[in-house]
């Protein structure tokens, strides 16, 4: 039992923050799309594409930071293609997302085999991982410094991205337009809002964020690319967005929860005799529980709304009967 509780350390939080980063970035993109009224289930493909393009670009350009930019551009282009097919040809969003996820998965394996002769994984000694850095002053604060300092720029960007997205959605006019399109597209268009443009922009930004999350896996956290490197994190990001009620701050903490769950699953293997395959299911099991919770939460909200509506009708009926009786 003592070995079990020894898992809960600052190092667990550090690992959880790092593992949460790609989920947070992709989850923010998913939340933005949901707010604009378009379902984006292709986060997995955009994250995987970002992981592959990021490390390949870092290898050929000799600069990992340029690799990040190229990965984000590739994710944005994939998001634009997604928007084009959806708006131009009205392809079903679910079918389109499944097609993207399957195509990118096999395409990355094929290109890796053609370019580098590898199928399972690929790396090169010349590739430099995005370095971590300490934050002055904060690093010297006991406990807090150990938790908040010592990450790379992608981790800190995910924190600021949540804050920026919150400001855009809830403090700016453009954010009100995004939410208006998501709540009622037709009504938004009648007042002059370009719903197609807003949804396209949301898909492009979502692709860029998810691709950056994927690039974090290949050149920000590790220094290699493996087949199906995203490993379901895109789907977990979708659950994080829903669990966070599509709110940037809520999505951030939901992503952090999933990151801690994954870090816990990795570390608990060292202190228990449970089969590794069973422990690896822990993050996905947590995702399943969260989805069940989301479904129950929505049903409760719907039931409460119906109750308030019935109460209002009864009050109005009672008032009408009193007026009739008085007359």
Walk me through the topology.
Elements: H1 2-5, H2 10-35, H3 43-61, H4 64-89, H5 93-116, E1 121-122, H6 144-148, H7 153-171, H8 173-183, H9 185-190, H10 195-221, E2 225-226, H11 233-243, H12 248-268, H13 276-280, H14 282-326
Antiparallel strand pairs: 1-2
Helix pairs in contact: 2-7, 2-10, 2-11, 2-12, 3-4, 3-5, 3-10, 3-11, 4-10, 7-8, 7-12, 11-12, 11-14, 12-14
Walkthrough of the structure:
The chain has 14 helices and two strands; from the N terminus they run H-H-H-H-H-E-H-H-H-H-H-E-H-H-H-H. Helix 7 (153-171) runs antiparallel to helix 12. It folds into two domains: 2-280, ABC transporter involved in vitamin B12 uptake, BtuC (Orthogonal Bundle); 295-327. The chain is mainly alpha-helical. Helices cover 76% and strands 1% of the residues. It has a two-stranded antiparallel ribbon.
Count of DSSP E strands? 2
Largest sheet: 2 strands, antiparallel
Mean pLDDT: 89
How many helices?
A: 14
**Rg (C-alpha, Å):** 23 Å
Strand order of the largest sheet: 1-2
- CATH topological fold name of the largest domain: ABC transporter involved in vitamin B12 uptake, BtuC
Q: Report the structural category.
A: mainly alpha
Percent in helix: over 70%
> For the terminal residues, how far apart are their CA atoms?
76 Å
What low-confidence regions span 5 or more consecutive residues with pLDDT below 50?
none
Order of helices and strands: HHHHHEHHHHHEHHHH
Provide the CATH architecture of the largest domain. Orthogonal Bundle
Strand content: under 5%
Question: What characteristics describe this protein?
Answer:
327 residues, globular, single chain, two-stranded antiparallel sheet, mainly alpha, ABC transporter involved in vitamin B12 uptake, BtuC
